[in-house]
Amino acid sequence: MQPLLIVLAAAYGAAAGLLVPRPLYRLAVEPEEPWRGACPRGHALTGPAHGWLGPARCAGCQDGERDYGTGPLLAAALSALVCAGLAAAVGARPELAVWLLLVPLGVLLTAVDLAVNRLPDVLTLPMAGGAAALLGAAALLPHSAGSWPRALLGGAVLGGAYLVLFLISPSGMGFGDVKLALTLGVALGWYGWDVLFVGALAGLLLGSCCAVVLVLARRAGRRTAMAFGPFMILGAGAGLVLGALGAG
């Protein structure tokens, strides 16, 4: 069952990753700009979910000009790899479905943050509420390996901790990071306080080390804005894998 589960998770991740470029193209804009509603040549984006779902191809453009945004292969490969790794660590437990649903959103948030140093509310806030609700449903099913009340407390604790960091240094921490911390805290808290600590600390250390390397390499200054969301997500992913293995 485990090999089949891993293959199915990887296939799902690849399929979901192929859909990342369209919302990435629409969301990767500066804070004062509206979400993109047209392709680079001005044709309105249409399709499922008011044009948010589907491949990044414009039906109104000529052949050879239909594709826009970034290529889908990297997002598909990354999503497939992460989903397969989570399936191998978690196994056939109910919370796996929640993690798999969060993976493409995490890939999308990572790409948007790297592109424009922004974590849009349209993603972070629904993710927090959705993760909490879905884990509540998973807790009702047999063989789940976590605690829903602790997950909710974990979201509040990690979100509160990042809020404090934001208030201390608004130039070094965006408020979008605070909202993302709600989702990551819910996910990490599901498996335990030690997992929450490890996942949160891993994200902070990865981001800090990268910042130090960029400064030493003179690729950035002390006040240079840096996308911190990807490191938070990477650290939380590592924490989830360790938590799942420990609960197994």
UniProtKB/TrEMBL annotation:
A Pfam cross-reference name: Peptidase_A24
Originating species: Streptomyces antioxidans
Gene3D superfamilies: 1.20.120.1220
Similarity comment text for this entry: Belongs to the peptidase A24 family.
Presence of keyword Transmembrane helix: yes
The protein's name in its UniProt record: Prepilin peptidase
Transmembrane segments: 73-90, 97-116, 122-141, 153-175, 195-216, 228-247
GO biological process, one term: signal peptide processing
GO cellular component terms, semicolon-separated: plasma membrane
Organism lineage string: Bacteria, Bacillati, Actinomycetota, Actinomycetes, Kitasatosporales
The Prepilin type IV endopeptidase peptidase domain, residue ranges: 101-208
InterPro entries hit by this protein: Peptidase_A24A_bac, Prepilin_IV_endopep_pep, Prepilin_peptidase/N-MTase
GO terms assigned for molecular function: aspartic-type endopeptidase activity
Swiss-Prot/TrEMBL keywords: Membrane, Transmembrane, Transmembrane helix
